[in-house]
Amino acid sequence: MVAAAITAARRRRKAVAVLQKIHEHVANQRKDFQHKEAFKLVQRYGVIAVEDLTVKGLAGGMLAKSVHDAGWGGFLQILAYKAESAGRKLVAVDPRGTSQTCVCGAKVPKRLSDREHVCTACGLMASRDHVSAQVILQRARTVPSSANVGEVMPCVA
């Protein structure tokens, strides 16, 4: 009976070790991908704009699994570090209303299921995500230049 318990404990320890290796491998793959993508962005753009999202808050809600799986906080830290090292500007903008605002400044209310942006003020029709990205970049360009000369705007991670 004791020998069976010892054997079961050994098998469990081996299984735990195998699982730890798998998790470590996935974490290393994610970090490698994040470093490569951050490098590409920093090499390609002089100004990088991101939403100043509260990743901790998102990670506690219904999107928790997706937020943790994507490693948003870690990616923003890597991006900030690489941007600073390369002398690029990383600007974090207020995320409020970025998906509900048109590039022209008009409010365009949408449900989450609405994937197309249609502005009645200027007639712009485009992907909701594409317009949101343009609004984020527009906001980053209007941040007072003295606020981020020679420094990287802080990212919440």
Characteristics of this structure?
two-stranded parallel sheet; 54% helix; 10% strand; disordered C terminus; mainly alpha; two-stranded antiparallel ribbon; 157 residues
General description of the model:
This protein is mainly alpha-helical and 157 residues long. It has one domain (2-147). It contains 5 helices and 4 strands. The protein has helices spanning 2-44, 55-58, 64-70, 72-86, 128-142, and strands at 47-51, 89-93, 116-118, 125-127. A two-stranded parallel sheet has the order 1-2. The chain has a two-stranded antiparallel sheet with strand order 3-4. Strand 3 (116-118) and strand 4 form a beta hairpin. Helix 1 (2-44) packs across helix 4 (72-86). The radius of gyration is 22 Å and the shape is elongated.
